[in-house]
Design brief:
Tetracyclin repressor-like C-terminal domain-containing protein; alpha/beta; hydrolase; six-stranded parallel sheet
Protein backbone atom coordinates (compact mmCIF):
# COMPACT_ATOMS: atom_id res chain seq x y z
CA UNK A 1 0.00 0.00 0.00
CA UNK A 2 1.12 3.55 -0.75
CA UNK A 3 0.07 6.19 1.78
CA UNK A 4 0.17 9.89 0.93
CA UNK A 5 1.90 11.91 3.67
CA UNK A 6 1.01 15.59 3.55
CA UNK A 7 -2.52 16.37 4.74
CA UNK A 8 -3.30 12.65 4.87
CA UNK A 9 -0.93 11.54 7.65
CA UNK A 10 0.73 14.84 8.62
CA UNK A 11 -1.09 18.17 8.94
CA UNK A 12 0.48 20.98 6.92
CA UNK A 13 -1.69 23.51 8.75
CA UNK A 14 0.88 23.13 11.51
CA UNK A 15 2.81 25.73 9.47
CA UNK A 16 0.28 28.47 10.23
CA UNK A 17 1.84 29.52 13.51
CA UNK A 18 5.24 29.88 11.83
CA UNK A 19 3.89 32.59 9.54
CA UNK A 20 2.72 34.44 12.65
CA UNK A 21 6.11 33.85 14.30
CA UNK A 22 7.80 35.93 11.58
CA UNK A 23 5.17 38.67 11.59
CA UNK A 24 3.03 37.56 8.67
CA UNK A 25 -0.75 36.93 8.67
CA UNK A 26 -1.78 33.33 9.22
CA UNK A 27 -3.86 33.18 6.01
CA UNK A 28 -0.69 33.38 3.91
CA UNK A 29 -0.24 29.69 4.66
CA UNK A 30 -3.06 28.86 2.20
CA UNK A 31 -1.60 31.15 -0.45
CA UNK A 32 1.84 29.60 -0.02
CA UNK A 33 0.51 26.06 -0.34
CA UNK A 34 -1.49 26.92 -3.47
CA UNK A 35 1.55 28.54 -5.11
CA UNK A 36 3.81 25.61 -4.23
CA UNK A 37 1.49 22.96 -5.66
CA UNK A 38 0.73 25.02 -8.76
CA UNK A 39 4.38 25.64 -9.54
CA UNK A 40 5.50 22.08 -8.81
CA UNK A 41 2.87 20.70 -11.18
CA UNK A 42 3.73 23.33 -13.77
CA UNK A 43 7.37 22.30 -13.79
CA UNK A 44 6.35 18.65 -13.98
CA UNK A 45 4.11 19.31 -16.99
CA UNK A 46 6.92 21.25 -18.65
CA UNK A 47 9.17 18.23 -18.27
CA UNK A 48 11.66 20.08 -16.08
CA UNK A 49 11.53 18.56 -12.58
CA UNK A 50 12.76 20.93 -9.86
CA UNK A 51 13.69 19.99 -6.30
CA UNK A 52 10.57 20.57 -4.21
CA UNK A 53 12.52 22.57 -1.61
CA UNK A 54 13.35 25.18 -4.27
CA UNK A 55 9.69 25.35 -5.27
CA UNK A 56 8.70 25.83 -1.62
CA UNK A 57 11.18 28.67 -1.13
CA UNK A 58 9.96 30.51 -4.22
CA UNK A 59 6.34 30.00 -3.13
CA UNK A 60 7.13 31.36 0.33
CA UNK A 61 8.70 34.48 -1.15
CA UNK A 62 5.71 35.09 -3.39
CA UNK A 63 3.07 34.39 -0.71
CA UNK A 64 4.75 36.75 1.76
CA UNK A 65 5.21 39.57 -0.75
CA UNK A 66 9.00 39.20 -0.93
CA UNK A 67 9.19 40.92 2.47
CA UNK A 68 10.94 38.26 4.57
CA UNK A 69 14.68 37.74 5.05
CA UNK A 70 16.19 34.33 4.43
CA UNK A 71 16.24 33.35 8.11
CA UNK A 72 12.48 33.98 8.40
CA UNK A 73 11.82 31.91 5.27
CA UNK A 74 13.96 29.13 6.71
CA UNK A 75 11.98 29.25 9.96
CA UNK A 76 8.74 28.59 8.09
CA UNK A 77 10.25 25.88 5.88
CA UNK A 78 11.68 24.09 8.92
CA UNK A 79 8.10 23.59 10.05
CA UNK A 80 7.85 20.70 7.59
CA UNK A 81 10.07 18.67 9.94
CA UNK A 82 7.74 19.13 12.92
CA UNK A 83 4.28 18.76 11.40
CA UNK A 84 1.71 17.16 13.73
CA UNK A 85 0.03 13.91 12.77
CA UNK A 86 -3.71 13.54 12.35
CA UNK A 87 -5.25 11.71 15.32
CA UNK A 88 -6.40 8.90 13.02
CA UNK A 89 -2.95 8.31 11.50
CA UNK A 90 -1.44 6.01 14.11
CA UNK A 91 -4.60 3.87 14.52
CA UNK A 92 -4.80 3.42 10.74
CA UNK A 93 -1.14 2.46 10.38
CA UNK A 94 -1.49 0.13 13.37
CA UNK A 95 -4.35 -1.69 11.63
CA UNK A 96 -2.18 -2.15 8.54
CA UNK A 97 0.72 -3.45 10.59
CA UNK A 98 -1.48 -5.92 12.47
CA UNK A 99 -2.97 -7.09 9.17
CA UNK A 100 0.56 -7.62 7.80
CA UNK A 101 -0.08 -5.13 4.99
CA UNK A 102 3.22 -3.44 4.07
CA UNK A 103 2.88 0.32 3.66
CA UNK A 104 5.18 2.91 2.10
CA UNK A 105 4.91 6.66 2.55
CA UNK A 106 4.65 8.76 -0.62
CA UNK A 107 5.39 12.48 -0.56
CA UNK A 108 6.46 15.50 -2.53
CA UNK A 109 10.01 16.60 -1.85
CA UNK A 110 13.01 14.91 -0.29
CA UNK A 111 12.87 11.39 1.08
CA UNK A 112 15.20 12.31 3.94
CA UNK A 113 13.06 15.28 4.99
CA UNK A 114 9.86 13.23 4.82
CA UNK A 115 11.39 10.38 6.80
CA UNK A 116 12.55 12.87 9.41
CA UNK A 117 9.08 14.36 9.73
CA UNK A 118 7.57 10.90 10.18
CA UNK A 119 10.28 10.02 12.72
CA UNK A 120 9.34 13.10 14.75
CA UNK A 121 5.79 11.78 15.17
CA UNK A 122 6.84 8.18 15.80
CA UNK A 123 4.95 6.99 12.70
CA UNK A 124 7.89 5.92 10.58
CA UNK A 125 8.14 2.66 12.54
CA UNK A 126 4.86 1.51 10.94
CA UNK A 127 6.15 2.02 7.39
CA UNK A 128 8.44 -0.05 5.19
CA UNK A 129 9.98 3.06 3.67
CA UNK A 130 9.47 6.42 2.00
CA UNK A 131 9.18 7.19 -1.71
CA UNK A 132 9.64 10.87 -2.53
CA UNK A 133 9.08 12.86 -5.72
CA UNK A 134 12.61 14.29 -5.76
CA UNK A 135 13.96 10.75 -6.01
CA UNK A 136 11.42 9.69 -8.64
CA UNK A 137 11.92 12.73 -10.85
CA UNK A 138 8.17 12.78 -11.53
CA UNK A 139 5.44 14.41 -9.50
CA UNK A 140 1.99 12.93 -8.79
CA UNK A 141 -0.68 12.99 -10.15
CA UNK A 142 1.30 11.99 -13.25
CA UNK A 143 0.47 8.26 -13.50
CA UNK A 144 4.15 7.51 -14.14
CA UNK A 145 4.97 8.76 -10.63
CA UNK A 146 2.86 5.98 -9.09
CA UNK A 147 4.37 3.33 -11.35
CA UNK A 148 7.86 4.49 -10.40
CA UNK A 149 6.86 4.55 -6.72
CA UNK A 150 5.69 0.96 -6.99
CA UNK A 151 8.90 -0.01 -8.77
CA UNK A 152 10.96 1.64 -6.02
CA UNK A 153 9.00 -0.28 -3.39
CA UNK A 154 9.12 -3.48 -5.49
CA UNK A 155 5.36 -3.91 -5.48
CA UNK A 156 2.85 -4.55 -8.27
CA UNK A 157 0.65 -1.54 -9.17
CA UNK A 158 -2.29 -3.82 -9.97
CA UNK A 159 -2.36 -5.18 -6.42
CA UNK A 160 -1.43 -1.93 -4.67
CA UNK A 161 -3.73 0.67 -3.11
CA UNK A 162 -3.01 4.37 -2.84
CA UNK A 163 -4.72 6.27 -0.03
CA UNK A 164 -4.88 10.06 0.22
CA UNK A 165 -7.06 12.95 1.34
CA UNK A 166 -6.48 14.61 -2.06
CA UNK A 167 -8.93 13.59 -4.77
CA UNK A 168 -6.67 14.57 -7.66
CA UNK A 169 -3.87 12.36 -6.29
CA UNK A 170 -6.22 9.38 -5.95
CA UNK A 171 -7.42 10.03 -9.51
CA UNK A 172 -3.86 9.89 -10.81
CA UNK A 173 -3.18 6.66 -8.94
CA UNK A 174 -6.25 5.00 -10.44
CA UNK A 175 -5.17 6.10 -13.92
CA UNK A 176 -1.91 4.27 -13.19
CA UNK A 177 -3.83 1.08 -12.39
CA UNK A 178 -3.76 1.27 -8.59
CA UNK A 179 -6.72 0.86 -6.23
CA UNK A 180 -7.87 4.32 -5.15
CA UNK A 181 -8.84 5.17 -1.56
CA UNK A 182 -9.99 8.69 -0.71
CA UNK A 183 -10.17 10.12 2.81
CA UNK A 184 -13.10 12.55 3.07
CA UNK A 185 -12.50 14.53 6.23
CA UNK A 186 -14.73 17.37 7.45
CA UNK A 187 -17.76 16.10 5.54
CA UNK A 188 -16.18 16.58 2.12
CA UNK A 189 -17.75 14.81 -0.86
CA UNK A 190 -16.06 13.04 -3.73
CA UNK A 191 -15.13 15.66 -6.38
CA UNK A 192 -17.28 15.24 -9.49
CA UNK A 193 -14.22 15.75 -11.71
CA UNK A 194 -12.33 12.61 -10.62
CA UNK A 195 -12.82 8.91 -11.24
CA UNK A 196 -14.89 7.31 -8.50
CA UNK A 197 -12.53 5.88 -5.88
CA UNK A 198 -12.76 2.21 -5.02
CA UNK A 199 -13.32 3.13 -1.37
CA UNK A 200 -13.85 6.25 0.72
CA UNK A 201 -13.97 6.95 4.43
CA UNK A 202 -14.41 9.91 6.75
CA UNK A 203 -11.08 9.19 8.49
CA UNK A 204 -7.84 7.54 7.48
CA UNK A 205 -8.76 4.64 9.76
CA UNK A 206 -12.18 3.98 8.21
CA UNK A 207 -10.69 4.33 4.73
CA UNK A 208 -8.01 1.74 5.49
CA UNK A 209 -10.62 -0.57 7.00
CA UNK A 210 -12.73 -0.23 3.85
CA UNK A 211 -9.70 -1.22 1.77
CA UNK A 212 -9.16 -4.30 3.90
CA UNK A 213 -12.80 -5.28 3.36
CA UNK A 214 -12.42 -5.33 -0.44
CA UNK A 215 -12.50 -8.78 -2.04
CA UNK A 216 -9.05 -10.25 -2.57
Amino acid sequence: MLVDVYDTVLRTDGLRRRFVDVGRPEHEYELFLAHALRDAMGFALAGTPVAFARVLTDALRTATGHKLPDDALAHIAEGFTTLPAFPDAEPALTVLARSRIPAWAVAQGSGDHTSGALDATGLRTYLRGTVASDDLGVLPPDPEAYRLACAAARIDPETTAFVSAHGYLVHGAMRAGLVGALVLRAGDGVPASIDLPHVTGTTLLTTVEALLDLPS
